Backbone:
């Protein structure tokens, strides 16, 4: 499985580089390479773990989380409401339709940034709007949100507020403390699919 995931990463890097380097085709749907390179440089595609967590807790209807990790990792632990994309579906028609959904902020995440960055680059070339990368992926999210943080003696009010928010978020996702939400680990996993379907729909492939 890890070998297949590594191969996928390499393929995405090659595709992404090719889309930037190759001259613009005669296709109005493709983004000009200069604009794309400008977007890459300004880093506006990033959302941090606190921003994503806040939107999950608030049940933001514009949020569309796309989990790019292998299926077995997704089944063990995933952000609520996320959709898992299998490697062989990334360039399928249904995936393109998913990314083209209007009124949605598509937030990509994997274990770290590499896969998310490459998928963002591939789809940005085709002018997919409102697409972001969760900075640091699930590794950073887990370290920040799920692990207890002890404030320092010199912590500012803003620091204390952020630690308080993360503590409440940890309770929300794990069921610890007085929060009555169902722990994320015991919630049924979303079907592994490209487009949301009825609960009885069968799951798609994994890694």
Residues:
């Amino acid at each position: 499985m890890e070998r297949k995931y590594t191969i996928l990463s390499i393929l995405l890097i090659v595709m992404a580089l090719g889309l930037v380097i190759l001259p613009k085709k005669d296709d109005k749907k493709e983004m000009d390479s200069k604009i794309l390179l400008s977007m890459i440089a300004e880093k506006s595609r990033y959302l941090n773990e606190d921003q994503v967590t806040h939107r999950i807790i608030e049940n933001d209807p514009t949020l569309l989380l796309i989990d790019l990790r292998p299926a077995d990792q997704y089944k063990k632990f995933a952000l609520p409401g996320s959709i898992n994309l299998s490697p062989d579906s990334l360039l399928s028609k249904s995936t393109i339709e998913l990314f083209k959904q209007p009124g949605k902020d598509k937030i990509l995440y994997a274990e770290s940034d590499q896969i998310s960055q490459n998928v963002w680059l591939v789809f940005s070339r085709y002018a997919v709007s409102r697409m972001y990368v969760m900075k640091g992926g699930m590794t950073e999210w887990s370290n920040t949100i799920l692990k207890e943080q002890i404030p320092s003696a010199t912590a500012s009010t803003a620091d204390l507020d952020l630690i308080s928010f993360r503590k409440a978020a940890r309770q929300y996702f794990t069921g610890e403390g007085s929060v009555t939400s169902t722990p994320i680990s015991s919630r049924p996993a979303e079907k592994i699919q490209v487009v949301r379907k009825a609960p009885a729909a069968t799951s798609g492939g994994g890694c």
In short: Residues 2-21 form the longest helix (20 residues). The beta strands are 46-47, 63-67, 83-84, 105-109, 131-134. The first strand starts at residue 46 and ends at 47.
